[in-house]
Amino acid sequence: MNRLAEDSIKVTLVVIQEDDNEIRDLNENIKIIRLKKPRLLYALLPLLMTIKKLEGDYVLSTLGYVNLAILFMSHFFSSKVIVREANLLSVLIDNSKYPWLKRFLYNLLYKRADKVFVTSKRMKKEFEDRLNTPKDSLTLFYNPVDDRKIREYSFKSNNFIKSSKILAVLSGRFVEQKGFDRFIEIIPLIKKDISFLFIGDGPEETSLKSRVDELSENNRVHFLKNTDNPWTYYRLADCFLMPSRWEGMPNALLEALCCGTPCIATKESGGVQDIKDLLEDQNQLQIASFGDDFITKVNAIQPKEKNLAQLNSIPKEFTLEYAYSHFLKSLKHPNSRWI
Predict the structure, then answer these.
(1) Are the CB atoms for 274 and 253 separated by under 8 Å?
(2) What's the whole-model pTM score?
(3) Hey, what CATH topology would domain 147-318 get?
(4) In CA terms, which of 71, 193, 311, 316 is 20 to 30 Å from 36?
(5) Distance of CA 102 to the CA centre of its chain
(6) Under a CB-based contact definition with an 8 Å cutoff, are residues 333 and 57 in contact?
């Protein structure tokens, strides 16, 4: 959004929930409209009226349930609709409470989109194989990260002191998806000169900490509350670990690569194969099945070479500037009004 506004394109951000918190790092030329509704259901009519009133050329939505709502209402306004899907269909549909209903809605509504941005080749294939989405509306669009900002912040100092020769970092919401619970279970099988730093918060925080105590691993397992600058810890780390049960395109892993930190991720971690295929040094990312293979790779972690800390390993396809250029090329009339 900021890049669109910087190019003097009119952008309006519509916020559905009752959250009055300041939206950080937003370009001052972007107009904000707050619907202040507790749930999307209560916001449907106000959202439709807002879209019709703004008369934007494009409406962009990036959350699955909001995507469905906007596509459902799309016959009632003239703006073109672009939706971005963040997760694999196999996760969204198969793991939902009513898979048949979700499959029906996706089949019915996603064909109405003028563009569907998918974030990995695997996701694109799932859309082609499982839904009736027109292939010409599907566009592979990798999640961009602001590598310049990440690198700048990563060099700032922090007060964390390594408790062992090797430090591995895990970062994200403390929820089932991220697989931190199952990783903690294998820590006793990992050599003792590796310590672990978990960055984040969430509903599983108490149970994760309790399990670490039960396993008597609290001397080398540390927890840090979610922070505005996790990147300084990514750079300090010798390896970044992602034991996720599922992902779309793993932003935290991309950010770790910006900091020159090698990564180990599960096969289920979304678009990791896309990332690995585009890396100049493919040793920077290892992909493993969770279990013995993952444990073996973690046990093989070595202290990070000093020169790696100066590198930006992220493939150019995931940088902000490349993504913005690709985004504009995918549109017929990018210099328009955006909602």
Answers:
(1) no
(2) 0.87
(3) Rossmann fold (3.40.50)
(4) 71
(5) 22
(6) yes
Q: In the prediction, which pLDDT does 333 show?
A: 60
Q: How far apart are CA 62 and CA 3, in angstroms?
A: 17
- The C-alpha atoms of residue 82 and residue 115 are separated, in whole angstroms, by 5
Per residue in 234-250, pLDDT (tens digit) is 999 999 999 999 998 99
DSSP state of 143: P
For domain 2-144+320-329, give the CATH number.
3.40.50.2000
Question: What residue type is 40 in one-letter code?
Answer: L
Mean pLDDT of the chain: 91
Q: Which residues contact 232 (CB under 8 A, 6 or more apart)?
A: 153, 154, 155, 156, 157, 158
Q: Are 217 and 188 in contact, with CB atoms under 8 Å apart?
A: yes
Q: Where in the chain are the domains?
A: 2-144+320-329, 147-318
Better-scored residue on pLDDT, 118 or 21: 118
The pLDDT value given to residue 90: 85
Asked, colleague to colleague, whether 2-144+320-329 and 147-318 share their fold, the answer is: yes
Q: What are phi and psi of 198, to 5 degrees?
A: -95, 125
Model confidence at 334, in pLDDT bands (50, 70, 90)? Answer: low
